[in-house]
Amino acid sequence: SNTRYLKVRISAIGDDRYAMFIGDMSEQRRFEAMRRDFMTNVSHELKTPAGAISLLAETIGDAADDPDAVRYFAGRVSKESTRLTELVHRLIDLQKAQDATGVLDAKRLSVLAVARNAIAENQVQADGRHIELDLSFEGKPVPTVAPEADGAEESAGTDTDSPDVHVSCDEEAITTAVKNLIENAIHYSPEHTTVRIAVATKDDGSKVAIRVIDQGIGIPPESIDRIFERFYRVDPARSRQTGGTGLGLAITKHCVADCGGTVSVWSHEGEGSTFTIELPTVK
Ligand code: ADP
């Protein structure tokens, strides 16, 4: 029926429009297919922990007179429900980042303050895995905690005299983007390694690169083009084990795009990965 419709269009409006029309149709179909895939993924990802929770709850009922078994299964219920909650939060983040274009609250922000806040949000997980988080600016080490920030969360809008670089972004979007990259670097690295967060200006200061460099497992070449897709994981089992949802990088990509920047990756299996966010700077 599509073919017949197209023929009618040709006779009505001519060849140029015909080409455009086909383009639109396939674009529309591609979009529909992506939406269907996404919904299939979402339902699958939600069903897995939800199904586990109901099974585990039944098992607890059956094991009522064995306190050790009850404790064990209750622990697993708790883990699966955490997973479910994490997934729902991530879906909301993704929705926000995807819909944000143009309605973001762009402010002049200190990149080092953004990096420090993103580091602070990952410090507990890093300590738990004996991973050191190092921050540098223009190749020189800088403290991960601002001297004047006495415990309170640092506002990325604050100005100090120390060397820094500024961008115009939505604070939540850019912090989420950097936070997700650091979180992955920790998840996909062995214990007792270092994750470096290197901030450096380029192109005469008109741009800034925020690099998150790990000494982790790396990404196989055949997967590197796909890791920013929603729900794509190189190793789904490992990702689930570390609490991954497969949405982190998709969220990062949208957040960075909302700030007018790009994100790219370099990786070597077994050596590590470097994710780079590039943003235009402001004075
Ligand atoms: P997840 O929640 O699974 O970590 P992401 O969207 O954040 O989802 O990442 C997608 C996939 O990319 C991960 O499952 C992992 O296979 C790979 N990946 C992301 N960051 C790294 C990294 N720093 N080192 C190795 N692999 C990574």
How would you describe this structure to a colleague?
It is a single chain. This protein has 283 residues and is α+β, with helices and mostly antiparallel strands. Helix content is 51%, strand content 19%. The chain has 8 helices and 8 strands. The chain has helices at residues 2-13, 15-62, 67-99, 111-120, 123-128, 171-187, 236-241, 248-258; strands spanning 106-110, 132-137, 140-142, 166-170, 194-202, 207-213, 262-268, 272-282. Strands 1, 2, 3, 4, 5, 6, 7 and 8 form an 8-stranded mixed sheet that branches. Helix 1 (2-13) packs antiparallel against helix 2, helix 2 packs antiparallel against helix 3 (67-99) and helix 4 (111-120) packs across helix 6 (171-187). The protein starts with a helix and ends with a strand. Adenosine-5'-diphosphate is lined by residues 184-185, 187-188, 214, 216-219, 227, 232-235, 239, 244-250, 273. This is Sensor-like histidine kinase SenX3. It comes from Bifidobacterium santillanense.
